[in-house]
Specification:
4 strands
């Protein structure tokens, strides 16, 4: 059973008893499953059940309600059955022990973003990690009578403002060209498998992030980035090329240098050509070249915020 389905069933069975115990919160509690863990993204499978996979849900309260009733509500939530529908006997790590239960709306978002307030400037948006934003906007909300949690989340779903988006796209283009169109090929010529693996990894992660950015989607934690990219409406065809590219370091021990070089060249150029075409289509660049380094001037020239415009193209505080 998928984690979101399990959580919804658990909520439908046990949320009513929470409402009976706290009648003053009836019509004030928001319920859902959002945050960390593969189940919140719908990416969970049988292997996911070995740790931090348990029946449960999130309850979000206004700050005032949380201060007055949060600890008591959490105690009642903790008394609910730990085993449900055959789940609940797995390992719960210290890192995964605070993913379910009672939160204030502000506290929940502060956990991921470092602040319980929405960013006010493009530069503040630039500082927010993609993976954390993905964790704030995944999963499902089943009930939110006050609308406070949903309103905050919807503002995040509007995605990065234009200046922050352009800066992140420029950084991805710079890494893709440096790691994939340049350093990977040089590492293959030198028969340096470690440098090739590192270059391929940097190119792959930057490419997956670029795909998400051009789809106006936040890329999740790196472990789930490829899975997420496969469902994107734009550029998901690049996933097949990326999968083959990840075989390159291993192929270096089996194939001739020339054959491996030609394969890597073809794959990186195909991915970068598709990205370059999409950059033109979305009016981020007018450059005709498939070498993504050549697109940086056009991408950066559209940034109006002087603080962001002054940054080097490759600079990205949240990194990929």
């Amino acid at each position: 059973m998928k984690g979101l389905v399990l959580a919804k069933k658990y909520y439908e069975e046990y949320a009513p008893c929470l409402c009976r115990e706290f009648p003053q919160l009836e019509g004030r509690m928001a319920f859902g499953l959002v945050g960390e863990g593969s189940q919140c993204f719908g990416f969970d499978d049988e292997i996911s059940c070995d740790h931090d996979f348990e029946p449960g849900f999130c309850i979000w309260l206004s700050e005032g309600d949380y201060q007055s009733c949060g600890k008591e509500l959490q105690a009642v939530y903790d008394s609910l059955p730990k085993n449900y529908e055959g789940f609940g006997s797995g390992v719960v790590t210290a890192e995964g022990s605070d993913r379910l239960g009672v939160f204030s709306v502000e506290g929940f978002f502060e956990k991921f973003l470092g602040t319980g307030k929405l960013p006010e400037t493009a530069f503040q948006w630039l500082l927010l990690p993609e993976g954390s934003l993905a964790a704030c906007t995944n999963g499902q909300i089943w009930k939110d009578p006050l609308g406070e949690f949903t309103a905050f989340r919807n503002e995040l779903l509007h995605f990065y403002p234009e200046d922050a988006l352009r800066k992140k796209i420029a950084a991805r283009a710079a890494v893709m060209s440096q790691a994939g169109q340049y350093n990977l090929l040089r590492a293959i010529k030198r028969n340096d498998r470690v440098s090739a693996a590192l270059s391929a990894a940097r190119f792959t992660e930057a490419s997956l992030s670029m795909m998400h950015l051009l789809n106006r989607r936040y890329m999740p934690f790196y472990k789930w980035a490829f899975c997420s990219a496969q469902s994107l409406p734009i550029l998901s065809n690049c996933c097949n090329y990326i999968a083959h590219l990840c075989e390159i370091p291993g192929l270096m021990a089996q194939e001739s240098t020339d054959k491996t070089f030609d394969l890597a060249l073809g794959l990186t150029e195909t991915i970068c050509a598709d990205v370059a075409a999409e950059l033109r289509k979305q009016n981020f660049s007018r450059e005709k070249s498939t070498f993504l380094q050549d697109h940086l001037t056009d991408i950066m020239s559209g940034i109006k915020d002087p603080e962001i415009a002054s940054l080097p193209p490759m600079a990205d505080f949240t990194g990929v």
